[in-house]
What does this fold into?
Amino acid sequence: MKEQSAPVRLWTTDFILLMLCNFLLFLQLHMIVSPLPSYVQDRFHANAFQVSLFTCLFALSAIVARLFSAKALEKGFRNAMIYIGLSVALLATLGYYFAAGIAVLLLLRMVFGVGFGLSSTAFPTMASDIVPVKRMGEGMGYFGLSTSLAMSMGPIIGVTLLQGAGFVTLMLSTAGVIAVIYPLSYSLTRKKVAKKKTPQAISMQPSHQEQATRDVASVSGAKPGSKEKAPFNRKLILPSVLNGLLSITYGGLVGFIVLYGKEAHLANPALFFLFNALAVLIVRPFAGRIYDSKGPKALLIPGAICIALGLVTLSWATTMPILFVAAFIYGIGYGSMQSSIQTWMIQVVAPAQRGMANGMFLNTLDFGIATGALLLGAIASLTSYTEMYRYSVLFMALFLLIYLIQGKRSGSFQIETHPLLSHTHITATDSAASHDTNDVQVAPDKRN
It folds into this structure.
């Protein structure tokens, strides 16, 4: 008779708190990212290239900071990264009040980027550590929803505050959101960061442990039992490149949607992000389950097509209803693709390297947004914002080309899960025979 252990739960208190903290962290970021170009242009009479620098330099400083935060997470300095990062971001935000010129404001954005980069890696890494392996796509899909919603709601709130109450109110509101994260994260950070045991030690019999060790050695290139540092996992390269291309298109939205609205005479272009958020809310729960059952191909190809259609529709938007349609189509694509790429990157590395994988995901996200702001800003200065959005479709065409060529070259679009994960949480169906003969106790993957 099979023994049953405690159900594998997804919606734990810690998971919900992590989602909330991550949501607020990205919300305060995007409350200022979208309205800032309009503010800089109106106050300092900046051109499109100068405006793009505010997004670009912020993103690059966040990337540099994450190079250190990922290593710090592996060494157990999680709490320090969270609180130092939040404090730096808070002080930089309050410093906007004293910025009397473009140079000072740019410097403060770079300082803010360092703070954001240090803190933003911790929450998704903590989430990926507590999500059940067999529900990784679903769990990280829900967690990624906190990022996507923040990226969609933040610009609406920020633009509304800037237009209705002014930049100082926007700055103080953003600082207030950062301050709220401190008490919410306390119950998460007070728990001791324990050294991770490999999943085999908990859920596998000795023969499986030995096999997993050999598999890890073959993947990493390190000798079994040695303390040699594993080399960079090359399986992260493809999803990182794809994430960067996807993020370039989003960089054009957060950086220039308000300025495009002025050019196209749209009443409230920031509402684009509201309908984008609605689409993300609808598609994300289904996307996670599709990923778990069919893999990334079922989401990335149709998602890229939706992104391209959304951008083309946006470039022809002369009325608010057309803008809403464009936002909804774009949101369906973005909502299904972003979490799929993040889950993909988490699944191909060992549990101890999730901080590094999440860091790469966020770095390529920021790098793509920075590149999009810089490159598309240059295109807009030479042509128009309408033409800029049409040119941005080319990045989705390149996305599909790279993904299809790589899939055909490898002979499969299925990802290879890291051995430490493929040996864990064995389902009852897959291991029924071995359970009877080898006394392996298997917990059913009961959903909550």
About this structure: The chain has one domain: 13-192+200-213+232-428. The chain is about 75% helix and 0% strand. The CA atoms of residues 205 and 438 lie 8 Å apart. Confidence is low (pLDDT under 50) at residues 1-5, 194-222, 422-448.
